[in-house]
Amino acid sequence: MTTRDNARVSVLLVDDHAVVREGYRRLLERALEIAVVGEAASAAEAYRLFTQLVPDVVVMDISLPDVSGIEAMRHLLLRERLAKVLVFSIHEEAIFPDRAFRAGARGYITKASAPEVLVEAVRAVARGDRFLSPDIAQRVAVRALAGASSTLKSLSDREFEIARLLARGRSVREIAKLLCLNHKTVANYQWAIRNKLGAATPIQLIQIARQSGLIGDST
Length: 219
Prior knowledge:
Helix content: 40-55%
Strand order of the largest sheet: 2-1-3-4-5-6
Shape: globular
Number of helices: 10
Number of domains: 2
CATH class of the largest domain: Alpha Beta
Structural class: alpha/beta
Number of strands: 6
Distance between the termini: 31 Å
């Protein structure tokens, strides 16, 4: 998964909105050394295209209709440990880049970034560098220096993903199918998550998720 000096950087775009992907494609292909070779609207489609196209960089949204972009990235990295994933998300809370980098992302930028930042980020990730967009870099640094606590910080990576799906209204059975887990296993995770977050009901879980930035109105 390395980019030759004289070759164009191949990119796979993963976002569930076709109009958004079209905008990204046009923006990236203004840079002559970048070529968008595929587009995916879900984690499952992203995995299929990744195995077919073997792109240099995957530009991945977090909010996808099946599992999250972070979970999707884990699957890609299991397939190819050197895969280069740039997370491009609406989420500006520091916990999201923290989780993304822990999962193996090479870069994280927000959709509030200036257009040229996306191009700069793709170039950096393709070179093997790490990249964090300036609009959240200070927020992440402050959180790290202060050791800021978060309601969600106590959750493991698996619990974090399941909490996101529960907060979006997914049933235990649906989550078990999406994550290829046993129904009872997910039910146990659900109990542990509610216990850690102090959520006695699904409604309370959604409220905590919104307050913590785990989900938003458009997530």
